[in-house]
Design goal:
Length: 328
């Protein structure tokens, strides 16, 4: 039964991600790394960059053209509808209604997931316009803790703090370090996010180690989401495989593209696990914590989201001042 459900969930998403009609996209006028400011260069990616300071329409239309950000855009753009369809199917099957407080985390799951997916789409699609636009998409980092919050609603103080810290660490790394990027940049991005993930995933890891998987159908999905997350962190931090084949992964095969695919699969597997747990443990959670505490757990999400937006806006303000000084 689990295997059939797993295949039904995995195959459509894999087809969307891996058989993207990338080869059908017309080529976009692109330039080499040496022809764009260092801010826009990525390690081991030598070509496929879009020229800076073009009309905004050029970057919007580049959604349908081939460049070195195309797959970064499309992997998350297509993940959104897949996620929405699976969420809606599960909600319909379980008969969830929003007047039931126990259903609100399911809605927050969807909102936070779509937030990180489509902020990522906007960042990869539009950041090449200018240095100011590039730093404006600090808002992309708001999606990181927003997505993380949905699996940490019971650990409010720690989860909220580390969620905010992951946003702050990513903003600081972008503000502080310039290309060629030193290892400290990845450290600032990965350590806060890693701490948040360890805290949030600890009860799931405990269940995986102490409970028979045959007793809980959600556990294989939880194991899959952990595996996808850890693998995505590897590809994000190590710039592989392009590190070994400079110039050969400029359009397809970059580690960041693989990171996007794995993170999308991680989100989809979390969705399946969440609804399995909801169906099995809903009454127990209400009995243990009460509806009042569940309301407070849900309120923590918009509070965290606002804090992260303010952090990103402060970082962008500082960077805007730095760019003005540079222009003068």
């Amino acid at each position: 039964m689990f295997l059939a459900g797993f295949v039904r969930f995995l195959i459509p998403s894999s087809v969307l991600f891996y058989f993207l009609p990338f080869s059908l996209l017309p080529p976009s006028p692109t330039v080499t790394a040496s022809q764009v400011p260092s801010l826009f260069r990525e390690p081991y990616i030598l070509s496929g960059y879009r020229p800076v300071q073009q009309d905004w329409r050029c970057y919007l239309l580049s959604l349908f053209r081939k460049h070195n950000e195309s797959l970064n855009v499309w992997t998350h753009l297509l993940a959104g509808p897949v996620l929405l369809l699976r969420w809606w199917a599960n909600v319909d099957t379980l008969g969830c209604t929003l007047d039931d407080v126990t259903s609100l985390p399911l809605l927050l799951f969807l909102v936070s997931s779509l937030t990180y997916l489509y902020l990522s789409v906007a960042a990869h699609l539009l950041q090449s316009h200018s240095e100011r636009a590039h730093y404006f998409f600090f808002l992309d980092y708001v999606g990181v803790p927003a997505w993380r919050e949905r699996i940490g609603v019971i650990f409010l103080p720690g989860a909220a703090f580390f969620g905010w810290l992951s946003c702050t660490g990513c903003c600081y790394a972008k503000f502080r370090y310039r290309w060629p990027y030193p290892p400290q940049r990845k450290v600032c991005q990965l350590i806060p996010t890693g701490l948040a993930y360890v805290l949030d995933i600890s009860p799931v890891a405990h269940r995986l180690l102490t409970v028979s998987w045959s007793q809980e159908p959600s556990l294989p999905f939880h194991a899959l989401q952990i595996a996808c997350f850890l693998l995505s962190a590897l590809f994000f931090s190590c710039s592989i495989p392009e590190r070994f084949f400079p110039g050969n992964c400029d359009f397809a095969g970059q580690g960041h593209q693989i990171f996007h695919v794995l993170l999308s699969l991680c989100t989809l597997s979390q969705l399946e696990a969440l609804f399995q747990d909801y169906a099995r443990w809903r009454d127990t959670v209400v009995e243990l914590f009460g509806e009042r505490q569940l309301w407070w757990a849900c309120v923590s999400f918009p509070v965290l989201f606002v804090c992260c937006i303010l952090t990103a806006l402060i970082a962008m303000r500082h960077m805007s001042k730095a760019l003005q000084s540079k222009d003068e």
